[in-house]
Amino acid sequence: MYHYRSDATQFLDQLIADNPELETERMENRNLLWDVELNPQEQAGFEAAKVEKQPYTYYQN
Length: 61
Prior knowledge:
Layout: H1 7-18, H2 21-33, H3 40-48
InterPro entries: DUF3460
Protein name: DUF3460 family protein
Organism: Neisseria animalis
C-alpha cells in the first residue's frame, strides 16, 4: 500500500520529534486564544451595545 507524505508533513513530523516540548507549548498557547472564560457582565454589555442591522441599500421600503 502506498502512503504519500508531503514534504511539509515530513518536516513537521521531524520538527516535533526533535523538539518534544513544542506540543506542550502549543497547547499552552492554544489555551490563550480558544479556552477563554467569558465574563457574563461583559457579554451582556456586548449584547446591549449591538446596533440593528440596516436593510439592503437599494431595498425600497
